[in-house]
Amino acid sequence: MKKSYDKALINAYLKKAGCEAALQELRENLFVIRYDKGEFAASPLHNTDLFQIVVEGAIHIYYIRHDGSVYSLANGQKDYLLGDMAPFQKEPGSVYAQANGKLTCLALSISENRERLLNNCLFLHLICQSLTQKIEAITKLDAAPATLKQRVLTYMQYKCENGRLAGVEKAAFQLNCSSRQLQRLLNQYQAEGLVNKLGKGTYQLTANAPGFHGGVYAAASQHAGAGPEKD
After folding, report:
1. The domain that contains 207 carries what CATH number?
2. Residue ranges making up the domain that contains 125
3. Residue 52 is part of a domain; what is its CATH number?
4. Is residue 228 part of a domain?
5. Which residues contact 115 (CB under 8 A, 6 or more apart)?
6. pLDDT tens digits for 159-191?
7. What residues contact residue 27 under an 8 Å CB cut-off, 6+ apart?
8. CA distances from 58 to 37, 100, 150, 168, 176 (A)
9. CA separation for the pair 119, 130 (Å, rounded)
10. Are 169 and 216 in contact (CB under 8 A)?
11. Is the domain of 132 the same as that of 152?
């Protein structure tokens, strides 16, 4: 991720964006962020505190449930908004926004501009349009197909603190499987070097686990609208 505060570049991108009027009063607070493929523009794991508009490239938006299943929400392109709910939220967002390739966004700090944003009628109108489109799209989506093997790794990476699963029975309940099924998979992953056993019922993901360094869920966008696969 790289930031740029070049005024000429910011003005050029703002003129091409579909929200120039809404952000005109905040022009001096805008900056450019460039992401490489697989980098997260937004994530529950990192509170970015940013409102962003995609100006070049595409981004995959998805949500991960507690059972490790992945819901592909959108593939955002030019003028897609990130952080549009953040001015109204007290807690960090729950979705992941991951660059599909080279990605460029216009951005501004929400905490530093919250009052001005909430008093900007054009900005609020922009947010209403964005959220309406997203809600309509989300109601038509299903979980991306995933096997229990995939969901266990996803669960450990995104739902277990620092990739550490503590308590097989508790995790099995979240994953909608039996403790015996989960234990078999953990034993298999340990043999494959994907997890380390730290103690009774406690397992730690290793750097060998698929997706541990990001980018593993880019393919999930291809399955939007498909029904979940039974284990």
Report:
1. 1.10.10.10
2. 2-138
3. 2.60.120.10
4. no
5. none
6. 888 899 999 998 998 888 889 999 999 999 999
7. 10, 11, 14
8. 10, 6, 25, 38, 33
9. 18
10. no
11. no
Residues in the chain: 231
Domain identity same for 122 and 8: yes
How many angstroms separate the CA atoms of 152 and 66, rounded? 10
Helix spans in 98-230 (H): 110-118, 121-138, 148-159, 168-175, 179-191
d(CA 211, CA 96): 14
Number of independent structural domains in the chain: 2
The pTM of the full predicted model, rounded to 2 decimals, is: 0.61
Q: What's the CA gap between 42 and 188, in Å, rounded?
A: 33
Asked if residue 115 and residue 34 are part of one domain, the reply reads yes
Query: Strand pairing partners for 56?
Result: 104
Say how far apart CA 70 and CA 142 lie, in whole Å.
Answer: 9
Location of structure tokens 């969901």? 151
Q: Is residue 229 included in any domain, yes or no?
A: no
Which tens digit of pLDDT belongs to each residue from 100-140? 999 999 999 999 999 999 999 999 999 998 888 888 777 66
